[in-house]
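<tokenise_the_fold>
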Amino acid sequence: MDHHPVQTIDHQGGKINKVVTLAAYEVYVEIYGPHDALITGNCRGGFSTGELIALLYARAFPRREWRQRVADASAGMSHV
């Protein structure tokens, strides 16, 4: 499988390259613990676009900052 599911604003669902979702998932696991169903699509259709943005943003910083960087990126976010 080259792609993972991702939530879309139109609720039709989409797909994104698994390289992207696995990078975001690395941050997710560090903050919240493992939850493989998020990347397989068996949980709410995968990450939302907002989650992907926040998680990938955080990944650019040292691991010890990931939790705070996700919180910073997510503050005030709506329906992304």
About this structure: The two ends are 25 Å apart (CA to CA).
